[in-house]
Amino acid sequence: MQSIEEKPEEDQKGKRSKKIAFVDPQGDADASSDATGKSSEKTYRKSTYPRESMAAAARKSSVMILARLMGPAMTSSRADRGLYGRTSMYVAPRFQNTYRLESKNPFQREVMQSMMGRFLKSYLDEYKYVPKRAKRLAENLTEELRNQFKLCQFERYRYVALVTVGDKAMQDFRCVTRALWDPEKDDCISSSYEAPSFFVVASVWIVYFE
Predict the structure, then answer these.
(1) What Pfam families does this protein's entry cite (predicted)?
(2) In the chain, N or C: fewer CB atoms in 10 Å?
(3) Are 32 and 22 in contact (CB under 8 A)?
C-alpha cells in the first residue's frame, strides 16, 4: 500500500496532528476520516504466504514416512521400480536366509599363532627403541596385527588387538586378561617379544560374529 501525507492541522489542544490516507493499488485514495471526524477502517490485501507452519509440515512428512514403513512389504514387481518415495536411510537391505550356523572358512589357531610370532620378530628386530615413542609403537603394532588377521579372510570373525610395551629395568611383570566368550567358536592368541632394552606382549581376541 502507499500512503499520502496531508498538511498538518491543529487540534483543540494546539498540537499539530497529521492525517494519513491509505491508497489501494487497484482503486482510488480513501479518505482517512469521514464526516464525523472518526478514522475509517483500514483495508489490507490478503497475504499469499502459505499458512501451514514449518512444524506442521515436518509432522506431516514424518507421519507419511511412518505410514510407508509400517505398510505391507513390497512385492518383487514393486521392488523393481525403485524406492517408491522411501528415502535410502529407511530402506534396509534384504538378503535371502542361508540357514548356515558355521563359517565356511573357520579360524585356524596354529597357523595364526606362528604368523603372529614371525610378524613381531620381523617388525621389532631392527627397531630402535625410544621410551618416549613406546605409545606410538603400541598403536602401530595394534593396527598392523589386526590388518594381518583381516587379510586371512576368515569368515564371520571380528578381531580385537591389544599390545603392551615396556622397559626392561630388572622388574617383574605379569600380563593377565579376561573375557566372556564362546569357548567353541571364540579364541585368543598371545605372543611376546623380548629385546635387551624393552619387551612387547601382544594379544588378539578372535570373536565369532554371525
Answers:
(1) Tctex-1 (PF03645)
(2) C
(3) yes
Catalogue all structural domains in the chain, each as residue range(s) with its CATH number.
109-208 (3.30.1140.40)
Length in residues, the chain: 210
Locate 124 and state its grid cell.
621389532
Which among 150, 158, 153 has a CA at the least distance from the CA of 104? 153
Q: Considering just the CA atoms, what is the radius of gyration of the chain in Å?
A: 40
CB 152 within 8 A of CB 127: no
124 has which bridge partners? Answer: none
Model-wide pTM > 0.70: no
| Placement of cell 509400517 in the chain | 70
Q: Is the dihedral of CA 130, 135, 136, 139 positive or negative?
A: positive
Q: How far apart are CA 161 and CA 143, in angstroms?
A: 8
Measure Cα distances from 118 to 4, 23, 39, 97, 175 in Å.
Answer: 95, 93, 99, 40, 21
Q: What is the distance between the alpha carbons of residues 65 and 90, in angstroms, rounded to a whole number?
A: 9
What's at 122, amino acid-wise? S
pLDDT digits (tens, 9 = 90+) for 139-176: 999 999 999 999 999 999 999 999 999 998 888 888 88
CB proximity list for 59: less than 8 A, separation 6 or greater = none
- Tens of pLDDT, residues 65-112: 666 655 555 544 444 455 445 455 556 667 777 788 889 999 999 999
Sheet with 157-167, edge to edge strand ranges: 157-167, 198-208, 187-194
For 91, residues 6+ apart whose C-beta sits below 8 A from its C-beta are 83
